Amino acid sequence: MTTTPEPGKRAYQSTEQRQSETIEAVVHLCAEQDPSSLTTARIAQKVGVSQGALFKHFPNKSSLWESVAGWVAGQLTTRVFSVAEQYEQADKALEAMFLAHIGFIARHPGIPRLMLGELQKPGNQPAKRIIRQTLAFYRQKVISLMQRGIEQQSISPSIDIEAAAVLYIGAIQGLVVQAMVGGDIASIEQSAPRIFKLFRASLRETSHDPKE
Question: Which of 122, 161, 162, 205 is deepest in the core (most CB within 10 A)?
C-alpha cells in the first residue's frame, strides 16, 4: 500500500531544495564575478527561476546572503573540523584540518571572494556577523589544538600560540590569494602540504632568550 506525502510536507521539502539550489548557485557565481556585482536577476537565471519565485524563498538579498554565510559556516564547522577530530595527535589534527580547508576552497573557489566581500561591507549585517563569528570560532579551534599539542609534547611550550594561530590562518589565506593572482585556484592543493610542513617545523622550535 502506498501513501501520498502530506501537501504541507511536500511543499516544505520543495522549498528547502530550492533554497539549497540557490545557495549553491550563489557560491558558484561568486567564483565567476565580484560578489558585490551579483544581482538577484543573475542568481535567478542561474537557478532557472524568475526573480519573483526567488523572493518566495528569500524575502530579500540580505536574507539570501545570510543563508549563504550560514552554509559556509556549517561546512567549515562540520566537514573541516570533523576531519581534525579523527586524530588524537594535535599536530596531525592541525594538518588534516589545514588540508581539508584548502580542499574545500579548491572545490568552492567563490567562497574566499564572498567572505572577503562581506567583511568589507560597512555596517554589521547578519551575513557579516556570521562570517566574523565563524572566523573567531575557527581561530579558537586552532588554538585549542595547539594547546593539546603542547600537552602531548608535539609542540614546543615556548610557542606563542596566539601568533601561531594567526600564522596558521594567514598561511591558508596567502595560498588562496597567490592562487587567485595566478588564476589557478586548483593549484593550492598541491602547494598546501609543503606550506604546512614549514608551519609544523616552526611549532617545534624552541625560542632562546639572548640574555641567557
Answer: 161
